[in-house]
Design a protein that fits this description.
This protein is α/β, with parallel strands linked by helices and 492 residues long. The protein has helices at residues 133-143, 167-182, 201-208, 227-242, 272-285, 302-306, 312-331, 342-346, 352-359, 392-401, 430-435, 453-468, 474-477, and strands at 3-4, 12-15, 24-27, 30-33, 43-45, 54-57, 60-65, 74-75, 80-81, 106-111, 117-118, 122-127, 153-156, 186-193, 216-220, 248-251, 256-261, 289-292, 368-372, 383-386, 406-411, 423-427, 442-443. It folds into three domains: 3-81, Archaeosine Trna-guanine Transglycosylase, Chain: A, domain 4 (Roll), CATH 2.30.130.110; 122-244, Rossmann fold, CATH 3.40.50; 251-477. β12 (122-127), α1 (133-143) and β13 (153-156) form a beta-alpha-beta unit.
């Protein structure tokens, strides 16, 4: 396969391989000669598009032609531009699609005392303020020798916040860190404080709510003489507490999986993202939950999602979420369409609409059951939409805070990062999988080579259950685990 026409209404096709000038293509029975070299992932015009007319891909308008474009010509930023603006009216036009039938499946996970499932049995050290990041690192280093039994390891997540913050920034830090403390993959947690930060112990407890004192411990570094040794002794106790958990058979319906893309290319919306969408439908059919985020990368494709809100109340929450993010851009004097990135454009994505239509493919065809605010936990089974930015690490941290046991991250260009939750990298093309095998866990590039998307979705479901049962991701093998907290306001 050299090209793919995604939707019958499209007036462009996408190159699945590099195509040389003068190559003859057969599109719907018509012979089209390529007028210039076309890179993999880029678009080729298949019917005459006048200046000002829409460029159509995924059956949706993804750009406006800035000049006449002839069949066989390359379609990209030199002859097409975004049609987006800060406005937008949304009408609830409810659509329901049938989900696939899937035989019951299980994974080998951990059952927590509160009944929740987990896929890792880790000890987490959460710095409440950035000043103690170094202390947390030393505690982890000295405590590693005490890890035994079913405990997977001791990890900490440095960040620069927790002090000199006001308003929503302090609120977001408090909310995010408290959510990480509650995450089921953390069998036990040490909350490391300094003692003079404005995210005080009392404020943090207010956000955290009730907790098991055997599972969650606190250490205020200014109150003790040797903070590292005190921390190590606490972690030793937490390891003993966590070692009581062992893996057992758990229904796949207990899984919560986050979905994210980054370093996208022209194949993202054709291979990896719809493969994740097929996975999402299958997990939801089993009774499980998935979470979709990256609100700015829904701009231009909102209605594809909004039509699947299960009721008008969820629809209104989704509209408010998108409009709030648009207001966020405008309040900072930025246009809502300042996207895609240079790397996205190099990979064949022309406009934000182009990127968004591919991005939302990860949501599959299930009904949206809930719309969550930043770092809010998943409480409803099914497809959830989570408020968060497009930035890879900020949104992946957000997904973890929402309770995702693991994250599926599709990429056409590759990235080594990892969130606190196991982060499965899915390549859009086989060349990336072969080049960066140390980064990439799963190859969806096979779809461009003829694999059926449903077969790829089945294969991904089986792979996810292996990760949930203890198989390490590439980022876990390299101990790449990071967080980033959403910030908007001033620093004192």
């Amino acid at each position: 396969m050299q090209i793919i026409k995604i939707h019958p209404l499209d007036n462009v096709v996408v190159a699945l391989t590099d195509i040389e000038k003068e190559t003859a293509l057969n599109v719907d029975g018509d012979r089209i000669t390529v007028s210039e070299d076309i890179k993999r992932g880029h678009k080729i015009c298949i019917s005459f598009i006048k200046a000002g007319e829409p460029v159509v891909k995924y059956g949706n308008e993804i750009a406006k032609a800035t000049k006449d474009i002839k069949p066989g010509e390359w379609v990209h930023t030199h002859n097409a531009k975004t049609g987006l603006n800060e406005g937008g009216e949304y009408v609830y036009d409810h659509k329901v699609y049938k989900l696939p039938e899937v035989a019951p499946k299980t994974f080998k996970g951990f059952k927590r005392d509160d009944g929740r499932a987990a896929i890792r049995n880790e000890i987490w050290i959460i710095p409440i303020v950035g000043c103690v990041n170094g202390i947390a690192r030393q505690i982890v280093k000295e405590a590693e020798e005490y890890v035994h039994g079913s405990v997977d390891g001791v990890y900490y997540f440095p960040h620069p916040f927790g002090c000199s913050q006001l308003g929503d920034d302090l609120k977001n830090t408090k909310k995010l860190l408290a959510a990480l403390v509650k995450h089921p993959n953390a069998a036990a947690v040490l909350c490391l404080e300094l003692g003079c930060e404005n995210l005080t112990h009392e404020l943090f407890l207010e956000e955290l709510g009730g907790y098991d004192p055997n599972r969650v411990k606190f250490l205020k570094c200014q109150d003790v003489e040797d903070d590292v040794s005190e921390g190590v002794n606490i972690v030793k106790d937490l390891i003993e507490y966590a070692s009581k958990y062992t893996r057992t058979d758990i229904p796949a319906s207990e899984l919560i999986v986050g979905m994210k893309c980054g370093g996208s290319d022209g194949l993202s919306g054709i291979t990896a993202n719809p493969c994740v969408g097929r996975f999402s439908d299958r997990l939801i059919s089993l009774g499980g939950s998935t979470v979709l985020t990256e609100v700015p990368e829904m701009f231009g494709a909102e209605n594809i999602l909004f039509s699947r809100c299960e009721n008008e109340s969820v629809f209104k929450k989704a509209v408010n979420m998108v409009n709030d993010f648009k207001d966020y851009f405008v309040s900072h004097g930025q246009v809502v369409y300042e996207n895609p990135s240079p790397g996205n454009k190099e990979g064949g994505i022309t406009t934000l609409e182009d990127k968004s239509c591919g991005c939302v493919q990860k949501g599959g065809s299930a009904q949206i059951v809930d719309v969550l605010g930043y770092a809010e936990p998943v409480t409803k089974k099914g497809l959830n939409v989570l408020s968060g930015p497009g930035n890879d690490l900020v949104s992946a941290t957000d997904l973890t805070a929402a309770g995702a046991h693991l994250i599926l991250f599709t990429t056409g260009r590759g990235t080594p990062f990892g969130a606190p939750a196991p982060t499965v990298k899915i390549s859009t093309n086989t060349a990336l999988y072969e080049k960066k095998h140390s980064w990439i866990d799963f190859n969806a590039g096979t779809v461009a080579e003829g694999e059926d998307l449903d077969a790829a979705g089945d294969r991904l479901l089986d792979f996810v259950l292996k990760i949930a049962s203890g198989q390490k991701t590439r980022s876990e093998e390299k101990d790449i685990r990071e967080i980033s907290i959403f910030k908007d306001g001033v620093v004192l």
